[in-house]
Amino acid sequence: MSTHSRAAARFVADAARTAWHDGALWTVRAKRDRMAQSVPEWEALRAASSAIKRHTLSHLGHYLELFERNASANGMQVHWAADADEMNRIVGEIVAAHGGRNLIKSKSMLSEECGLTPYLLARGVDAVESDLGERIMQLLHRPPSHIVLPAIAVKREEVGELFERVWHTAAGNSDPAYLTHEARRHLRGKFLGADIAMTGVNFAIAEAGAFAVCTNEGNADLGTSFPDLHIAIMGLEKVIPDYRALAVFTRLLARSATGQPVTTYTSLYRRPAAGKQIHVVIVDNGRTESLANEAHRNMLKCLRCGACMNTCPVYRRSGGATYSYFIPGPLGINLGMLRSPERYHGNVSACSLCYSCSEVCPAKIDLGEQIYAWRQELDGEGLADARKKLAVKAMNFAMRAPGRFYGAIALGRFAGRLPHGVLNNRLNPWYGSGRDMPRFAPRTFDALWKAGLVRKACGTSDDSNPEKHRQTP
Amino acid sequence: MKVGLFIPCYINAVYPEVGEASYRLLASLGLDVDYPTGQTCCGQPMANAGFERDARPLAERMERLFAAYDYVVGPSASCVVFVKEGYPRLLDGYREHACIDARIYEICEFVHDVVRPAKLGACFPHKVSLHNSCHGVRKLGLSTPGELNVPYRSKLRDLLEMVDGVEVCEPSRRDECCGFGGMFSAEENAVSIRMGRDKLRDHLATGAEYITGADSSCLMHMQGIIDHDRLPIRTLHIVQILASNL
Amino acid sequence: MTTKERILRRIADARMPAEAYPAFDFTPQRFEDRTAEFIRQTEAAGGRAVLADGAPLDELIRQLYPDARRIASRLAEVKSATIDPDATDDARTLCDVDLGVVEGLLAVAENGAVWIRQNIRHKALYFGATALLIVVPREAVVDTMLDAVGHPAFADADFDYGCFMSGPSKTADIEQALVFGAHGPISTTVVLR
Q1: Residue ranges of the alpha helices (H) in A148-194?
Q2: ipTM reported for the complex, 2 dp
Q3: Does the CB of C187 have a partner CB in chain A at under 8 Å?
């Protein structure tokens, strides 16, 4: 059993919550489908998006330098970080040089990836998440379970209890509108008192030396409205050539993510306002290694829309917390394996190979195919599950010789005559929590054919007229 | 035109009637159909579990068994997909010798695209819910994936429309996975069974008597849950409908 | 070697074969009535868009936001403005004004977004105001984002900060229930004129 399958069994045990989680995310997927259907050139846009990303990745050094040059000319300060430690250190130094300990953050997966918030908290910087979902997770001391909908696995009653505890909201009131407006009220104080703003970067436009941040809440924009220091952190794959590319991606991003035609705010930061500073930290942290990995470099095309999670039938029924990597779903399975197969191969089982993720991806990343490819690589790395390997070896042994195969079926047929409970119990992984074993037929097709029974039943030898039903071309 | 019938392992062992119906359907269309005996497995279960390379002897076996046929036709979309996609990776000099992938068809695809009959002569006066299996939809194009913005087409529907009396409906989540997934069904059995239950609820909501599709593996998984939960619906491979009363 | 040099070296070592910038082989969506589509999409995004037939802005403001007392605007014709947002040194004072009246340069039909190029001192007004009224030239409605970035009002401009804004601030982070006014304006109105 993989780490994911063990955790998922616990999630699924709560049938009502599983149904809710699946239903809520399926609704998002359905909204995404309606959006895709409403844009006639949708598939051409996906193809363009994929090709622009491929082009950019193949000229990555050029575009990063171009971005740096133009952003610097615009008055931003650009930093480079090889890994999480260096990024955290750079951010820490910028914060220390500026002074102040109230930092207002908007959502950034890179920050999660690098453990930036704990790093800052440990240094006395009060880093406050301002996206409502992220704030809920921060107050719950739990990691986000979805990259776009961080609190999707948290029920309104839990949020109500949480807010009651930390903000003394009305007892027992779990109305989302009430709770959201209470959060707005309490976070206003954090916004107004912030010394430093931090955001992620959705797209860094090389030609313009500007970067785009996309939110629905406006928290990034409000956060950067007061402090005179704005630190933006970006994975180096976030660079894109120009505004035309930005237009392609913004046409796809929110439609894919939440089924909106665009995020409420698509903000472009191009030049710091007079007397203010913008620092951009470009972070590698394993991305150049992924770039060198021909079989899996496609992962760097990701726009972080989360559509692959919303469509994944396994993710919808197991929740983000069941994956051992901080990003769940098809995206997280792949990124985890790129990060460390040793640590994260326990997620590779979380895929029924339905390939829906590959079809929804706005950058046409072959997510499902890559999961299949990772499975093939596990054995070579000595990470294949021993029980599974044994089962496959046994199956393979039987299948190589018809005698053994048909002998095994005869054995199975005998086992099928045993009392129901002997086979259908929890020790049998097929039975699991309620799936009866199939029964072998009295005779295999092979045996029927050899006995001439298939042809005889059809009476095909004499009455068939080859042209009887054929359509004339 | 010589057609070699490709009968996947679990159909051979569990659903021989699907093999019989396949033969009956193709023979009724006037085709010269043969079954090379001694077939075992194409290797898909091992490959999906992460042991594709181990399937190589099976791929070589399949090549030998089907060398003499113009077409290789099987009643299982996912097995056909594996042969088409996986064998080129497994067999040396694959492109040079008589390769299967240009000749292999899932049976509905074959009847729809190659044989193109004007009529079938089958009759099945029942309401059926179409099970659009993942590999059939997204890898073989038996119907248009729900994710894409391209005009909807379904080869399975086209064929069923030629059957007298049948009423065809589809679950609300048209091509959501049922949770079989080969080794996935055992390794992630809790999620797999949950997916199956959800899919069955969706099929049941159509009011159909039968769930039908081009992949016996999905049907076998769902039938296991139907049996356990004693649900008022049955699974039936689509060839059994296309060949009914023939 | 600096970190930058090291990263660039690793990128070069990855030796990804060069791929060309794609030629776009499609025409972006075209709407029969762009203005009508813009209004429809704005409403879908939770906002409101109105065509002003020569009515003075003050009259519209009275009609649409009759309860607004603290009104901030730099637009000369907004006589009902009570606050000059550029007069303050502290952007914080612009939080919780009842209404901000600002300019937008483009309206995008496909998604109800308005391109706002910051031309006031503090962008805080765009996000801190409880309601926002955005005035956009009615001839500046384009079909899609691709048309927007190619439009002179976007492409030729020099700016510090700009934002495509579509409807009011919103969140669905609690059980996917849509709530307006997560952090920014609770209400937005686009006036096309």
Answers
A1: 156-167, 176-192
A2: 0.98
A3: no
